[in-house]
Amino acid sequence: MAKVLSLRLNYKGKFLDYAKEGKEIKRNFVIGSNKFLQWQILEPAFPDKHMLIKQKGGEYVMELPPDSQLSCERAGDTLDTNYLKQNNLLDGNQLMLKEDIKGTVTLAPNWSVDFDFREPWVAVLTPEEKAIVAQYARRSQPDSVTKFNRTIIWLAVILTFVFLLIFDVFLKPEYSSIQTVEDILLSQQGEAQKVVADIAPSAPSFAEPEAPAETAAEGTPQGKPGATGTGRGTGSSSLTSALQGFDAGAVGTAPALQITTVAEGFSAGRPGGGRGAGPGMGGSSGSGAGAGSSYNPAATPSFGNVASVVGKGPSTGGYSSAPEGAQGVHVLGDASKLAASGKAWGDVSKQKQIAASYSARGISTVSEGSIGGMDEGSRAKFSTIREQIQARQSQIEQAYRESQITQKVSFTITVYITPNGTVRESSVVPNGSYPSDFVNRIKSIVDAWTFNVREELAYQFKIRAG
What we know:
Layout: E1 4-11, E2 14-20, E3 28-31, E4 50-56, E5 59-63, E6 69-74, E7 77-79, H1 81-86, E8 90-91, E9 94-96, E10 102-108, E11 111-118, H2 127-136, H3 144-171, H4 181-191, H5 239-242, E12 258-262, E13 265-269, E14 338-339, H6 348-360, E15 365-367, H7 376-391, H8 393-403, E16 409-417, E17 423-430, E18 434-435, H9 436-447, E19 457-465
Parallel strand pairs: 15-19
Antiparallel strand pairs: 1-2, 1-11, 3-4, 4-5, 5-9, 6-7, 6-10, 8-9, 10-11, 12-13, 14-18, 16-17, 16-19
């Protein structure tokens, strides 16, 4: 019988769970710190999801997680990493699983997975085990209380069914069919009433009032001498006398307007307006200001000198020469206590020496923007570092709040990590002019970080606050 792949999960050396090919392992098997996975690795630094087993070319391949340790053996002989690579069994972080090889992968200090190939087996029960199964595989006999409760429940169900049947057959009211829209309109039309207002129509009549006997002589104006137009006379003047000289057939165009916009408002002039005597619609200087009888609708518009106000602007004061010596940064207090923007903080010569040492050993600086273009192993390694930095963002926010800075801050930081995960040196470059005490505190926080890695690395990232 063909052997199947079998995995065994251990925590602190104690067995937790099995995973077998064809049951839990179907083409691939995923583990991680996600709570919805079958195998959950409870370690903060472990990835959320990691594909541990996958099929490649008809065989199973194990993806070794970052910082994991591998030990293999064949027929009792230990196989080291060089042997696995020379025989094309280990390629990067991918281990080709063979039926004659078994081993252990240490995922974290307390978590490990054993892997090997085993023949499927069927459990055969002994006579004693069969007797125990026969004894406890049937239900126990109910007692008197259980029997009484079951009887009450069944009785309630039967009575409910009988009541629903009686209601549906005998007691359910019959509902009339739904009326159509036509029936509804006909019923409303029969109930409608026509309302007629009982008001007698009356024809309009215009009666011209009779002039009293004591009227003044016709055509004699009753205003002051020298006033233009017919004024309002003393005594009782009628509408007819007020409209003397009005020609209803004289229709002209609407007067045009000229408007000049200036800084303080606008000036407008229109024809026919004015003070004193004139041929237009002017008012009277006397006590009675009636409508003028010499209105000429064909008169052309007449404007004053409107253009005289165009060249006049608001009077403002200023300087004829541009200011000199202007600075782009405004600070309160001592400007010498600000860290220069774009310049690394701290011992720059030491930072350059360490960067040159890493570069000489072939350790290039990796930025967070270049992680997506790496191979799967390197991407998983630097993604873990990025997640750890994001988890420590609260330390930067706390320092920002305590420093009471009113502007948003941004830093470009490069960390040089040692094989044990500590930060050997950091290059903190402020992207702006910030207080030196605040920048020094940010560098102290970064220098105290420890990452879950086991090799020398150089990683550059940006961090913001505010």
